[in-house]
Each structure stands twice: as C-alpha cells, then as structure tokens.
Amino acid sequence: MSSTVRPAAPFGRRLLTVTRVEELGVYRVLRLGDGDGPVPAAGQFAMLSAAERWGGGEGERPFLPRALSIARFQAGEAHYLLEDVGPGTERLCELGPGEEVWVSGPLGRGFAAPGPGRRAILAGGGVGIAPLAMLQDQLEQAGLQTTVLLGFRDRDRVPGAGLLREARLATDDGSAGHHGLVTELLAGELERDPRAVVYACGPAGMLEGVRSLCERMGVASQLALEAPMACGFGACYGCVVPRRGGGYLRVCVDGPVIDGEELEFVEAHAGAPT
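Now predict its structure.
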C-alpha cells in the first residue's frame, strides 16, 4: 500500500496571517488564512516561522523553520496543533490574530485510503494527533467510518482530544479513559477485528509499539513520522530513517507517512515531541 500523491507546494514560502488561536488544554490551535494555497492531503506538513522575532540568543540568531503537520484545512484556513516544547514552538504559541507567519508547504506524502472492506483505525499520541484530524474529515466525507484511539500523558493534555470526534482515550496517569497506553486499546481493537488499516502519529515509542503490533498481527499500518527537519525538501538529509532491508528514507519527501512494513523499527528521533 503506497501513500497518496503529493499536492504540489508553491515554490518558495508565502506570508500568511493568523486568523484565530484556540486553546485545548496545554495545546494551541493556530489558524492561518491560506485561501490561495493548494489544498493539502491528510498527513502532509508545512514549514512555519514567525515573521517577526524569529530567533534567540546573542544577536537573535534565526531559528530554523518548524515542521508541523497540517491538522485541518477548512474554508481557506490551515490549522496547526502546537505545544510549547522549545524556543521555536514557544514563539509560535505566542502568536495572536493579525500577526504573520512564513509558510512553505504542503510538503511530503500523506495517508492513503484503506482498501475495500477494511476499516480505518486512527491511533494518536499527544501533539502527534494533529494529522489524524484531517484524515478523519476526509475519510468520513468519503463515507468511511473511523475508530479513533488517542493517548495522552495527563489531564492537562486530554483537551487535545477535542480536535477529533468520538475518540476513546488512554492516559499514562489514569486521569481520563483507559489507564495505560493507547497501544493497549489498539491491541484490543485488532483482536476483535483485524481487518483494518492502522493510521498512527505520535511519540516514537508509541509508533514503534504500533508498528510491531501490526507486524505481529499481519495488519497494514501507515505511520506519520515527525523527525526534525532543516529544509523540508530532501536536500539536507537531516531527517533520514533506516529502511528495512538497507538504505535510508528521507522523512520529508519519502514520508512523513511511511508504511510500517518499510521500517525495521521506528528510531527515537522520528516521533512527535513528548
């Protein structure tokens, strides 16, 4: 099973305006007006940088753009799910309506629809749930039902589940839903009905759990990796992951969505921040 064809991104970057910012617990949903940009596929990403004060340290040395999954695209607005985990995301979380952001994208390969007679299970963890929101939108618009399983560290992050519909929850601390890992919920779903395609994005440990579980049970999986990126166009080779059987895959152009069977394992640097 291969991923979707990539919608072509405009050459270079474009300056977009923040239209709205929503709070979901510790997360922020940054909305950018992008009516003239191409419609992204679920699973694609963009490279974002604030138009002003994008740098730190002595001399305000510029930060690299941040690669962020596109969480939703509606009515000419692109939505991005943010968590403050470092200086770059901290600056993006500070933005408010009317401020501007440089954006390159959509980039990379997205998710592919499940084949006939196969249901879609969406498994996400933490801020990595972002690309699953658009995927749920697109699958349901095509008349396909989805099963959504989301895992979070604690109660402060549980409001992020509001990005998707009818999700079953797991939390590490037991503050909501199943006390344990989202992969435990997934195992139960696959034991009841293994005729599924699993779509996953989240921390590397979770993605490796999904990959190995699906491999053992003979279930197809599509994993959205989030390796750190410098360029987003495959030029710098900073986001490579080892391919099963030898060689490497560049997450930014060969992914970010990669079939689980193409990977021997999910490396520690290839997941969403925790």
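The chain has two domains: 14-107, 119-262.
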